[in-house]
Task: structure prediction
Amino acid sequence: MFTIKQLLSHIENHRCYSHPVFYNWGKVNPDVATLGALFQQIQLFCSSTRPGGNYLEAMKEHGLVKENHLQRAIVESEENHGSELATMAGHVINKKAKQTILADVYDQELVENKLKEYSNQLLGNLPGYNKDTALALQTQKSIAVLSRRQARDYETTIKNIGTTLALEKISNRQLIPGEKHCLVDCNLYDLDINDPEMHYMLEHFGEIGAEQEHEKYAIEMVKSVLNEKTAPLIIEGMDDFLNALLCLWDLLDSALLQSGYHQVA
Ligand SMILES: [Fe+2]
Ligand SMILES: [Fe+2]
Result:
């Protein structure tokens, strides 16, 4: 029988959890087009993690009332995060370019179209890359794990709870601290976390950040459904997410950041 502690260490021991992609970003100091391609893949992956889809209703249908409340609180707190992430990406790109590439960083469509353009330019020839959506195969696969929230059956609902745990733990411990490291702490972009355009970061990072709370809620959810029968499904949901995201981080690291090559040389 698995305990919640074992499930949490399972995530902590996965290579995705300590992936150096954001540290290599900080070392390599990527150019404007590379920043655009990185943000394009990260932004689209992140946007797939926000909607609850049929998963919220499915939880209720299967009598998972407490779990539904916790998951709903997470989903509701994600409102506007897509546009705020676009603003932060546009701001970072303007700062890196030291000129206005994006005239209005609050215009989400303008920023997203530019990110797509950069991504197609740099990653467009990769096998499986979709030029219409500007998504690498690895990003598509990560998004596919989250799109299982459209299913309503019991087994997938439990798997989705496992995916939520892995997602929120990664967001709180690897993704957001990683972004804060390369975007703010490395001082590559002459910006301040208190800049209004950086609101996304301020909202997500640290003790009072959204992700801290999401992780707590996700742990509560898993604790409340964990038993001998659900454990394999929870682990499957966690692993599908962690393995898919690991492939995405590996791709961004090798194709765009040379796996820290600049620092080693
Ligand atoms: Fe968010
Ligand atoms: Fe989250």
Notes: Residues 78, 81, 204, 210 surround fe (ii) ion (ligand 1) (CB under 6 Å). The two ends are 47 Å apart (CA to CA).
